[in-house]
Design brief:
Helices cover 33% and strands 22% of the residues. Helix 2 links the parallel strand 3 (40-45) and strand 4. The radius of gyration is 22 Å and the shape is globular. It has helices at 11-26, 50-65, 75-80, 84-87, 103-109, 153-157, 165-177, 207-216, 236-244, 261-267, 273-286, 305-318, 345-368; strands at residues 2-7, 30-31, 40-45, 69-74, 93-95, 114-116, 135-139, 141-142, 161-162, 182-186, 223-227, 251-253, 291-298, 322-327, 374-382, 389-393, 399-403, 417-425, 429-434. It folds into three domains: 2-116, Rossmann fold, CATH 3.40.50.12160; 135-368, Alpha-Beta Horseshoe (pyruvate-formate lyase- activating enzyme), CATH 3.80.30; 374-434, OB fold (Dihydrolipoamide Acetyltransferase, E2P) (Beta Barrel), CATH 2.40.50. Strands 2-1-3-4-5-6 form a six-stranded parallel beta sheet, with helices on both faces. Strands 15-16-17-19-18 form a five-stranded mixed barrel. It binds 5'-deoxyadenosine (5AD) and iron/sulfur cluster.
Length: 435
């Protein structure tokens, strides 16, 4: 049957959707040209904030109304459980984030409705990839055991499980043979790789840095990225990997959430403002151009103007290259859901806007410092905004655009490496010229 998958949420969901696509193709189904052409549509859902969940449920409702065989997968399914059929009585199937491997069988059986919330299992298809692209996600750590007060993820994605290092190395070697130039290793808190269960049979040191070193030795692979990180994982060993392994990109997404020690303690983040800033300093001492990006929540219960100003000043001190700001959204069953959501919506909005404006100015300032430098870029195709421009990314995950040459013969291949000189800077984008 012709199918398509619609994905909401983080890279983990993007990766899971790819696995489902590979499993469906292996089961003999065919990718539809688009949604209209599809007989089956699978919606991969997110529940990190209420709005995200609403989007996936709304989308599924529309697909059901359009007569599609509609299935949902992902985080919102696990959170809602059987209630999902109260919202969507005609939904055909719903599977949790660690049960997506069952989808081909559910479709083959064709007996709807089906609900499979799944256990803490490793899903089938964990290592399945689709068509050869030059970039690939590889999940290394499933689940999360951090239990931050506001976060629904541990409830929906289950306990941490580190995939065996040998399996990951084999998978990445295979991808590199197929022409993949860049891998991004995924985990909710990827630096906890190998903490809860052993990742190596023969090694008792820090598991994640060792994994990075081994992956660095794979021929043909140009770049290794990973996300997301926690400052506790920024150990000397990790820093020495950055120093020794040029393939490991000097970019770290290090969600801070708040700059107020009081709020950080309430959130259960297990670091102070000072410890967080020390981790950033370690990265920037190694390389002043080290790109550090973050997530911040505004309007956490009880967040005062003073707490907010602490967040604002931390962001300035950390000099983030980019940041993602989220308005607090209470999630049922989390610890903070028991607290009064007392910061008014307009105030959350205001704090969001203030931090966004700060980031624009800071992003521009940081990018301007790169004008005149040379960056190594992997080619990503025409720019999304202007088709007469080419676009690529440097190791710091910075987007760089440049004029497409008049003569496109002998053109670039996707993922090809080239060197650009930066000639102009914007808050989110650099402009370059090939050298
Ligand atoms: N409300 C708002 N933002 C949240 N995040 C996680 N849980 C919530 C919530 N309940 C944000 C965090 C996290 C990002 C993926 O989403 O900043 O890093
Ligand atoms: Fe990703 Fe979290 Fe959304 Fe799940 S709930 S898709 S883990 S962001």
């Amino acid at each position: 049957m012709k199918f398509t998958i619609h994905t909401y949420g983080c890279q983990m969901n993007v990766r899971d959707s790819e696995a489902v696509e590979a499993l469906m193709l292996a089961a003999g189904h065919e990718k539809a040209a688009g949604e209209d052409d599809a007989e089956i549509v699978i919606v991969n859902s997110c529940t990190v904030r209420q709005k995200a969940e609403e989007k996936a449920v709304g989308k599924s409702g529309n697909l059901i109304a359009a007569g599609k065989i509609t299935g949902m997968m992902g985080c919102a399914v696990k959170r809602m459980g059987a209630d999902i059929f109260k919202r969507l009585p005609k939904l055909h199937f719903a599977v949790g984030p660690r049960a997506f491997g069952l989808i081909p069988k559910i479709v083959a059986d064709g007996k709807y409705p089906v609900l499979e919330l799944g256990e803490d299992a490793v899903p089938m298809g964990m290592d399945a990839h689709t068509e050869t692209s030059w970039q690939s996600f590889v999940t290394v750590l499933l689940g999360c055991d951090n239990r931050c007060s506001y976060c629904i993820v541990p409830d929906v994605r289950g306990h941490e499980y580190s995939r065996p290092a040998r399996e990951i190395i084999a998978e990445v070697s295979q991808l590199a043979k197929r022409g993949v130039k860049e891998v991004c290793l995924l985990g909710q808190s990827v630096l906890r790789y190998g903490v809860r269960n052993k990742a190596w049979d023969d090694y008792a040191g820090e598991a994640f840095p060792r994994l990075l070193r081994e992956l660095s030795a794979i021929d043909g692979l140009e770049r290794i990225r990973f996300t997301s990180a926690h400052p506790k994982g920024c150990t000397d060993e990790l820093i020495s990997v950055y120093r020794d392994c040029p393939k490991v990109c000097r970019h770290l997404h290090l969600p801070v959430q708040s700059g107020s020690d009081r709020i950080l303690a309430e959130m259960g983040r297990r670091y102070t403002r000072e410890e967080y800033l020390a981790a950033v300093k370690r990265l920037r001492d190694l390389d002043p151009e080290f790109s550090v990006t973050t997530d911040v929540i505004v309007g956490y219960p009880g967040e005062t103007e003073e707490d907010f100003e602490d967040t604002r000043s931390l962001m300035q001190e950390a000099s983030f290259d980019n940041s993602f700001i989220f308005k607090y959204s209470p999630r049922p069953g989390t610890r903070s859901a028991a607290l009064l959501d007392d910061v008014p919506q307009e105030e959350k909005e205001r704090r969001d806007q203030v931090l966004l404006a700060d980031q624009e100015a800071r992003g521009l300032m940081r990018n301007k410092r790169l004008v005149g430098t040379r960056r190594e870029v992997l080619f990503e195709g025409p720019s999304k905004r202007k088709a007469d421009r080419y676009s690529g990314r440097d190791g710091g995950n910075r987007i760089i655009v440049w004029d497409r040459p008049e003569d496109c013969s002998g053109d670039l291949r996707l993922g090809e490496k080239l060197t650009l000189e930066v000639i102009d800077a914007h808050p989110q984008i650099l402009v370059g010229r090939p050298v």
